[in-house]
Design goal:
By secondary structure, the protein is mostly beta strands. The protein has no helices and five strands.
Length: 66
């Protein structure tokens, strides 16, 4: 079962909706903000028909310098 959840971009603060398939108990995926277009990671824990927890966090590039 899919449920819509309103999340907030960790970069610009804009709220928008995502659809989450609650038949998958733990999920981690990357999505782009609909306003600033920056990618961020969403982590979701579900039970069938219900979202228990969700978090959004920035994705930062890691560069190695010698």
């Amino acid at each position: 079962m899919e449920i819509s959840e309103t999340i907030q971009c960790p970069f610009c603060g804009q709220s928008f909706e995502i659809n989450v398939d609650t038949s998958v108990s733990q999920q981690r995926f990357t999505t782009d903000c609909e306003v600033c277009c920056r990618p961020f990671e969403v982590t979701v824990e579900c039970e069938p028909g219900e979202i228990l927890t969700w978090t959004c966090r920035e994705i930062r590039a890691i560069c190695a310098h010698e």
